[in-house]
From TrEMBL:
Keyword Transmembrane: yes
Catalytic reaction equation(s): a very-long-chain acyl-CoA + malonyl-CoA + H(+) = a very-long-chain 3-oxoacyl-CoA + CO2 + CoA
Stated family: Belongs to the ELO family.
EC number: 2.3.1.199
Residue spans crossing the bilayer: 27-46, 58-77, 116-139, 151-169, 175-193, 213-233, 239-261
An example molecular function term from Gene Ontology annotations: fatty acid elongase activity
One cellular component (GO) term of this entry: endoplasmic reticulum membrane
The protein, known as: Elongation of very long chain fatty acids protein
Organism taxonomic ancestry: Eukaryota, Metazoa, Ecdysozoa, Arthropoda, Crustacea
Cell location: Membrane
InterPro entries linked: ELO_fam
Keywords (A to Z) from UniProt: Fatty acid biosynthesis, Fatty acid metabolism, Lipid biosynthesis, Lipid metabolism, Membrane, Transferase, Transmembrane, Transmembrane helix
UniProt topology in membrane: Multi-pass membrane protein
Record-level GO BP terms: fatty acid elongation, monounsaturated fatty acid; fatty acid elongation, polyunsaturated fatty acid; fatty acid elongation, saturated fatty acid; sphingolipid biosynthetic process; very long-chain fatty acid biosynthetic process
Organism, as annotated: Caligus rogercresseyi (Sea louse)
Length: 272
């Protein structure tokens, strides 16, 4: 309990009182509930029921995801916290100009630091919204689409997102959030176009590259974390959180790489 109390004292007090931020437990219960629904309760409920036709709802959901992801990407890139460290050029003015970034702790609602905190919170909520990917598969009785990769990925990210918002809402590891939001723009654009029917689906030759882009995302974030972990840069951002981020990126890369081999390389070998 003493360890918990000491850790809790390190929280970013700017987010005190925000929904789901007062304790880790609600997010943990939400994620446990998601896993139970995805792997047991959902398939059991739909076992003797007809699949639902949800094309309109799925298209609306995909559009919402594209717009929300684009908003988060642009917001994170344009409000990147600053620090006195190595500068790197980027294509957007003021967008993540540093290789290492500490958290800007201003409480001014109009400050980049506070905007970053709000954006991080929205990113965290978006990870809970991502559960709908699985729920739509359940209602459409496409149980084989609910892979362990999807369940593990969706269950991990809200927990990680909560820790980010609660303790370090901004700075170094929001780089990964920005890249992830951009990847989601392309991913949910693909899902929306795919839902329009066979005529459009024939034109979507780039599906397999989505997984490659996701693996590239994990790799980029992983190596950016290493610069802080090994002290190649120093801006005051806790290396321990970079280590946590790097560990999660390594796990996700391994899961996605295994998925890629099973679903694309083997198909290519069979076709050859």
């Amino acid at each position: 309990m003493d360890v918990y109390n000491r850790l809790w004292e390190l929280r970013d007090k700017r987010v005190d009182g925000w929904p789901l931020m007062e304790s880790f437990q609600p997010t943990l219960y939400i994620c446990i509930g998601y896993v139970l629904v995805a792997k047991a309760l959902g398939p059991f409920y739909m076992k003797n029921r007809n699949a639902y036709e949800l094309y309109g709802w799925i298209r609306l959901y995909n559009i919402i995801q594209v717009l929300a992801s684009l908003y988060m990407f642009l917001g994170l890139m344009n409000n990147g916290a600053s620090c006195d460290s190595l500068e790197l050029p980027f294509w957007l003015p003021g967008a993540f100009p540093k290789l290492c970034q500490n958290v800007e702790t201003s409480s001014d609602p109009n400050s980049p630091g506070m905007k970053m905190a709000v954006l991080c919170w929205w990113c965290y909520l978006s990870k809970i919204l991502d559960f709908m990917d699985t729920f739509f598969f359940i209602f459409k009785k496409k149980f084989t689409h609910i892979s362990y990769l999807q369940v593990i990925h969706h269950a991990i990210m809200p927990l990680f997102g909560w820790a980010l918002v609660r303790f370090l809402p901004g700075g170094q590891e929001t780089f990964g959030g920005a890249i992830n939001a951009l990847v989601h723009v392309f991913m949910y654009s693909y899902y929306f176009l795919s839902s329009l029917g066979p005529r459009v689906q024939r034109l979507l030759w780039w599906k397999k590259y989505l997984t490659q882009i996701q693996m590239l995302q994990f790799t980029a974030v992983f190596f950016k974390c290493l610069t802080n972990i090994f002290g190649l840069v120093d801006c005051g951002y806790p290396w321990q959180f970079s280590l946590l981020t790097a560990s999660i990126m390594a796990i996700l890369f391994a899961l996605f790489f295994n998925f890629y081999l099973e679903n694309y390389r083997q198909k290519t070998m069979k076709q050859g």
